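Notes to self after the call with IL:
- keep both proteins in one doc
- input above output, always
- annotate only the second one for now

Protein 1:
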Amino acid sequence: MTTLQVKKINLQNSYHQTAWQKILASENLRVEHHLSYTAGIYDGEQLIATGSLQRNVIKEIAILPHYQGGEVFNLLLSHLMSELSNRGFYHYFVFTKPMYQQTFEYIGFQKVAATAEACLLEKGNQSIDEFVKCFSKKEKGVKQQIGCIVMHANPFTKGHLYLIETAAKACAQVVVFVVEADEGMFSYQERIALVKAGTAHLSNVEVYGGGAYMVNFATFPSYFIEEEEQVIHYQTVLDATIFKEKIAPAINCTVRYVGEEPFSHTTNLYNQALKEVLLPEVQVQVIPRSASLDGQIISASKVREMIEAGASEKLADFVPATTRTFIQEKYHV
């Protein structure tokens, strides 16, 4: 065997892109876009293995059958993990088929959660077990409900507030997790601050950042799943499984609150997956969306449209005073 070489693959080059797509197809993997880095292992001039990154997620691992079995896999993953460190990521994930779970565990990855279709593993200077230690475990009385809500809050609206206040009236304690994601207009830290400010009057509500373990469909890989509808189902079931097995026990959660989304197919599938996975240990309450004074359904997307249009006159109908003040100071609308 000639000396194996690891190289960055330039996917803008049609020749290299074709070779990359061919090796993915040989392993029945689909092409994913928005990758931040792609590497290949070459035996002479032949591309024999490839792997990619999207931020801190390892994706698109494909190795020709003749080279599977250890050395090439270890070389490829070692290179990708080194590249992650060079990019400032010291905690990273891989989504894979359950049949490959043990292969990644052999090189130090630990399982976060697994379903029949997909497995999420992690490695680095953090872990989900350390993450959940940050939460104060709630005392669960015989008749007490401990509620939980997961939201993007991009930005925090009166709709979000209505959902939280509804849960706060029914539960002894409510824990709100803000999803960690690059939302563009409002940063992760800004969104956490807005939720905290908007719920400061509710003594039984606590707000936490969701870290890397709450639903973030942007990084879920679809390359080893054949149908788009399956992708949505698998990712929602995996997210619900993480919540059931890791998050809910850490806070003694007894009921998960979600907002009704009559016009969002993905959200409806997600809510259905929550019911399938969480019940009976954790109840699922679907709360109808609240409306503004003129009957419009309140949504964060409408608020962002108002900001972009410079239309501040209706902000008060859609967001609490704390959010409105922040928007006016940041965007001068």
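Protein 2 (the one to annotate):
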Amino acid sequence: VEGWFSATLPTAGIRRRGLSLIRADGDLYTSTRDVLRALYQYLQPGGVIYIDDYGSFGGCGKAVDEFRDERNISAPLHEIWETHSLTTSKTRFFEAVWWTKGSDEPFAEVG
């Protein structure tokens, strides 16, 4: 789907049973927030959400933290660390997070 998340995701045509995985790579506060607002309600309980750039772009992490706080999401955040070889030495850095949607969280049935 081509276009800004805020314009395309609300009309993306999510099918009946919802989503089992969301992988968001929006980099910025607004785009990450837009993905969470548009899609999280369709993530099935037990589904996984993976947020790229949580550790490398401050706005992305802020959007995730605010979203989880607003909805009282208490599922643990699991960190993803990456290693890159930019020169002869390897650099390890905190890149992403994921969590599993709880069975007590709302789920929007798609008709």
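Annotation: The first strand starts at residue 19 and ends at 24. Residues 13-100 form a domain with the Rossmann fold fold (CATH 3.40.50.150).
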